[in-house]
Amino acid sequence: MNDAEIQAYERAARAQKVSLSVWVRQALRTAYHTDPRGSPDKKVARIRAAAKHSFPAPEIDEMLAEIERGYGQGLMP
Fold first, then answer.
1. Can you give the pTM of this predicted structure?
2. Helix (H, G, I), strand (E, B) or coil at 67
3. CA 42 to CA 44: how far, in whole Å?
């Protein structure tokens, strides 16, 4: 980083009323969480692979009734 970049980052941190180190950590977290993590082709391949699996699940009405029963028994928050 050159001096002009560092000064710009310091101004951005001051504008948010945080230290430069806090501002940098926030910027890194934002960059990390917005990174798409892989190509669209890889994502589609993973979705297709997952869709091939079959897991037992009740019909939606039965599932909702089970959830309601859980609430009634104090099992759900």
1. 0.47
2. helix
3. 5
CB 53 within 8 A of CB 61: no
- What is the number of structural domains in the chain? 1
Which residue is it, tokens 């940098």?
24
pLDDT band at 51 (very low <50, low <70, confident <90, very high): confident
Between CA 8 and CA 1 the distance in angstroms is 11
> What would you measure as the largest C-alpha separation in the chain, in angstroms?
63
d(CA 7, CA 52): 53
Assigned domain for 77 exists: no
